[in-house]
Amino acid sequence: MKTFAFKFGILAVSLMMAAGQTDAQQKKYLGDPKYGPDSAAREECAMRMSLYNEFYKQKNYKDAVNDWRKVYQNCPAASKNTFIRGATIYKNLIKAENDAAKKEALIDTLMQIYDQRIVYFKQEGAVLASKGVDLYSYRGKDAAAEVYEMLKKSCELEKGETGAGVTTVMMQSAVDQYRAEEVDGAEVISAYELAMATIDLAIASNKNIVASGDAKKVPGAQKELENLDVDVKNVENLFSESGAATCDALIAIFDAKYDANKDDVEWLKKVTKLLDKAECNSSALFAKSSEALYALEPSATAARNLAKLFLSKQETAKGLEYYSKACDLQDDPTLKSQYYVEWAYIVLGQKNYTKVRELANNALKANPSMGKAYIVIGLAYASDAQNIGSEKVEHDAAYWAAVDKFTKAKQVDSSCEEEANRHISTYKKYFPNKEEAFMYGIQEGASVTVGGWINEKTTARF
pTM of the full predicted structure? Predict the structure, then answer.
């Protein structure tokens, strides 16, 4: 009885509101064919809109849907809100529905709402984005092909206006199809290219908003930039783990396009990045693309690519020269740190241990959370342990210092934990013998200075 009375009260209020409108307000919709073919239909449409909106404001979607449906069926062109709010109503009904068959029917209706919104109010790109993301959230891999086509078209239409999250779902749906053997690797590569190009445009668009200083728009643009950064990581991870990004596939696609694009800086950047991620650094395509890119635009990325190229050719001196240039040119602290660590590992292989530590410390100056920098220092200490001091206990004390670095690595960077633990397990076996250490006055927990070039304090443990 309470529910009935409540509904009746809303109806009465709505009717009174309608009755109390001025003549001018009445004529506004009574003379508008969007509300219906005649005055009676238009009155009905206006009343139904008022009723469902009252329920909608109270988040009473179950009671809103009947009046909303009348508006949707009889006067859909009256307001874009019919479709925006209709989508919200149905998403909530879907969430509340436990019967599988009924849920699927509600999802079908939600998809139709998006289609009809395009019919009446255009904005195809933006609407397809919402439709595709929602469809994937409800039906996942089963709808991958349909979702992919929707979101691909959305990105092509929206370009820099594409919202965060869309490219991730598009990429996921492409990978789903590839793993189901419904598309080939070339389609996944194409999806990756479109996703990254779209993200770049969206980032540029939102940076422009931030630069404008518009107080109303800047907070939203800043949040969008954070979300787009997540998209970059998601898309790159999906692509690299898809299995489609093989050297053969990439080379087959891009080698044929090289001559037409060898003077295009952006194309060269894209190709070298893709080849690098797929570890195709020894390919002829990577070589010529990297050299062409550096000639056109000397940059940190091009220098690093050339470093890897010359190292793969066993031209170590030239490779390290380009690593130095890459580190000097790189402004992004995370990438600068990564380059220094890569350089340090090359030098580790040359047994230039003091240089390893110097480079790793440069990496840590750029990014204190670079766990691999601590790992490479630890490996340098362990590799040269037998040259530290003149007594066995002095040699073995270097392993204490090495394990200190491995422990620090996993403290600052959880992604290094597995590798750090593996090294700790390996090198703690070489810690000084307790009895031998005692002969030199070293007891458990004592502060000890490891000698030689290491010259660091550590704690004795056995």
Answer: 0.61
Contacts of 428 (CB under 8 A, 6+ apart): 399, 403
Over residues 203-254, the pLDDT tens digits come to: 999 999 999 999 999 999 999 999 999 998 899 889 888 888 888 888 988 8
Q: Residue 36 — left, alpha, or beta (φ > 0 → left; ψ -120 to 50 → alpha)? A: left
446 is a domain residue: yes
On whether the CB atoms of residues 375 and 420 are closer than 8 A, the answer is yes
Name the residue with tokens 């930039």: 225
Domain of residue 112, residue span:
1-122
Residue 423 resides in a domain: yes
Task: Quote the DSSP letter at residue 430.
Answer: G
Per-residue pLDDT for 22 more than 70? no
Per-residue model confidence (pLDDT) at position 282: 82
| CATH number, residue 380 | 1.25.40.10
**Residues contacting 123, CB < 8 A, separation 6+:** 117
251 lies in some domain: no
Asked whether residue 280 is domain-assigned, the answer is: no
List the structure tokens of 248. 């053969």
Domains in the chain, number: 2
Q: DSSP secondary-structure letter at 241? A: T
* Last residue of one domain, picked from the residues 102, 122, 142: 122
Spatial CA neighbour of 372 closest among 353, 359, 387: 359
